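quick one before i forget lol
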Amino acid sequence: MMADKRQRVGLVHVYTGDGKGKTTAALGLALRAAGYGLRTVVIQFIKARTCGEHQACLRLEPDVTIMQMGDGFVLDTANDNQRYHAVQALVMAEEVLSDGQTDVLILDEINCAISCGLIALKDVMRLIQRRPSHMELVLTGRGAPYELCQQADLVTQMNAVKHPYDEGVPARRGIDY
């Protein structure tokens, strides 16, 4: 079966936009991949809060591994600690890319890390160029740069039309995180 996976052609996905569902779509892909015996690694840039997906991924190991490497959500500004964590996440992504054992690599919130200046776009573009041809690479987060979208094979724009948060409904455990 391993030979079959290595003959597959992997694509680059970008899930971006101001709407809800970017991480959820990526994790849905991880779930589908696990169903067929593909190994997925999820590296979360920026995020530093345990969520339901972490509990679920523990049940799916070793097929799905999730690594939280962030230092909390970044909105408009970045500090040295956040930058350090984002660079470490990028280093981890390079290691996963090189190990040859991963079929799907999800870099969650990497687009935000780029737009906030935590990591350089050129480094992410180099990562895309170095990915093994069988690997599916998924980049999520708001504000995906134009160049990144041009390089991707699939780009999905999540648009916020209506959200309960705008009406004062807080994020709900098990549904929103």
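fyi The mean pLDDT is 90.
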